[in-house]
Amino acid sequence: MEDATVPPAPIRAVLRDDIGEAMQRTGLLETPAPPAALRWIDTFVEAYGDRIESADAALPLVRALRSEAVVVPALPLERLRNRQVLFYLDTISQYVDEQPELRGIPVEADLLEIAKEFGIAPADALWAARMALTGVDDGPSLDLVFPLLGHDRIMMRIGAINSHLLHGRGLEPIAFGPDGKPFETLGAAGAPGAAEHVE
């Protein structure tokens, strides 16, 4: 039985062909499309097929996934500004670098295991990874997002976020949020084991 959120196979096939043609038309895909690119489009349709109405509507998402950089909004970036999250994201980068293939592995389950080491709650852990890598707080499973981004983009994006967090104000968060209340970052209460990672 197919997942109700994933378009049926015939619709996925049409979407794949239409998206491939749209990508070729806009210079995002060579002609003929290599097998690896077709597999990427298949994964894209599995991830985003229920969120797009046409191939042209898919192109902004395709461009965002293929960009080397991502823009994280100011307040979400502040939530990432602490030592536990920094080490968590760095460990994700190492995890990705060790994987020969990102397709078909239990990314979200593995991230939750990594997060335990830094005392980051499950929901916060997945939110932090998604925000750092995509700049948004909602989307398809990270099991699908990771192979769409690929090794190099994931590591570049995490490197850029961590560098941004460490420079300027460093790991000192803002004192108050826009509502005037004290601002808390993810894992602000502290995490067992984080100190061992300090160089």
**Helix content class:** 55-70%
Report, as a whole number of angstroms, the end-to-end distance: 50 Å
N to C succession of SSEs = HHHHHHHH
User: Major sheet: size, sense and barrel closure?
Assistant: none
- Rg over CA atoms, rounded to whole Å, is 18 Å
Query: Beta-strand level of the residues, as a percent range?
Result: under 5%
The shape is: elongated
Number of helices: 8
- Domain tally: 2
CATH class of the largest domain: Mainly Alpha
Determine the mean pLDDT.
Answer: 88
Question: How does the helix and strand content classify structurally?
Answer: mainly alpha
The poorly predicted ranges are 188-199
Would you give the CATH topology of the largest domain? Arc Repressor Mutant, subunit A
Give the second-level CATH assignment, the architecture of the largest domain: Orthogonal Bundle
Number of strands: 0
Describe it for me?
The chain has 199 residues and is mainly alpha-helical. The chain contains eight helices and no strands. It starts with 8 loop residues before the first helix and ends in a 33-residue tail after the last helix.
